[in-house]
């Protein structure tokens, strides 16, 4: 009877060792998959289609426009707030966008459905052809441009 008990206990140890070995293999495989997935995942580049999944700004965005001393139209796109922005903030070289073509590139990066409130800081009104071109373009890229 003692021999039978030892044989049974011995079998339990054997089964336990099989289970532990199987769990170790599974953990090893999962660890390898995790490491390999880290090698495959890279920082995504922002393309037009990727940006359409971004969240909308809570208070929309502000498109600011003014004319530079050399006569070129300049723009900046800033997050909407409850306060008026100061001129230095709007015209900062870090946020300044020169020309209509460059503005279109930046507008295309906004998420679909974004509200963009256009504020004109120029001493003169923005030319109708620029307004019309941007209103049409905003429809193409599916943002809501509210003109000045």
Describe what you observe in this structure.
By secondary structure, this protein is α/β, with parallel strands linked by helices. It folds into 2 domains: 1-42; 50-146, 2-Layer Sandwich (Nucleotidyltransferase, domain 5). The chain has 5 helices and 5 strands; from the N terminus they run ααββαβαβαβ. Strands 3-2-1-4-5 form a 5-stranded mixed beta sheet, covered by helices on one side. Helix 5 (128-140) links the parallel strand 4 and strand 5. Helix 4 (100-108) packs parallel to helix 5. The chain is rod-shaped. The relative contact order is 0.13.
Quick overview:
This protein is an alpha/beta fold. The protein contains 5 helices and 5 strands.
- Helical stretch tally: 5
| Amount of beta strand | 15-25%
Biggest sheet descriptor: 5 strands, mixed
- Name of the CATH first level of the largest domain: Alpha Beta
Count of strand segments: 5
What fraction, in percent, of the residue positions are helical? 40-55%
Can you lay out the helices and strands and say which pair or pack?
Blueprint: H1 2-40, H2 48-51, E1 61-67, E2 73-79, H3 87-90, E3 97-98, H4 100-108, E4 115-120, H5 128-140, E5 144-146
Helix pairs in contact: 4-5
């Amino acid at each position: 009877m003692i021999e039978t008990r030892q044989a049974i206990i011995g079998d339990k140890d054997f089964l336990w060792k099989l289970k532990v070995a199987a769990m170790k293999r599974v953990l090893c495989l999962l660890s390898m998959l995790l490491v390999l997935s880290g090698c495959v995942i890279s920082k995504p580049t922002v393309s037009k289609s990727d940006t359409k999944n971004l969240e909308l700004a809570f208070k929309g965005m502000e498109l600011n426009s003014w004319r530079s001393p050399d006569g070129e139209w300049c723009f900046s796109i800033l997050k909407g707030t409850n306060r008026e922005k100061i001129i230095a903030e709007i015209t900062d070289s870090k946020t300044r966008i020169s020309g209509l073509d460059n503005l279109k590139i930046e507008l295309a990066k906004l998420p679909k459905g974004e509200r963009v409130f256009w504020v004109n800081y120029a001493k003169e009104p923005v030319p109708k052809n620029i307004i019309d071109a941007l209103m049409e373009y905003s429809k193409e890229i599916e943002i809501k441009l509210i003109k000045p």
